[in-house]
Amino acid sequence: RSGDIAAENSGRSRPPLATITSFPPMTNGGLSKHSANIITPPLETQESKEPNPNARTPSKARRSLMMSAPAVVSDSSSPNTSSGSSDEENVTEKPIAKKRNAFGHTAVNAITYPANVKRVYQVVNRQTGSIGGNGHGGAIYGELTVGSMQKMVNMMKVHTGLDENSRFIDVGCGLGKPNMHVAQDPGVQFSYGIEMEHVRWLLGMSNLDQVLREAQRQDRGGSVLDVSGNSIIGHRCTLAHGDITEAQFFDPFTHVYMFDIGFPPRLFYQLADMFNRSSSPYLICYHGPKLMVERYGFDIELIIQLSTSMHGSSEGHMGYIYRRVQRRRRSTGKGSRKLICPTGGAGLPSDVPCDPLFAEPWRETRQSLDEHAELVRERVTSSFESCRKNRTRSSRRALNN
Question: What confidence tens digit (pLDDT) does each residue in 244-267 have?
Answer without folding.
Answer: 999 999 999 999 999 999 899 999
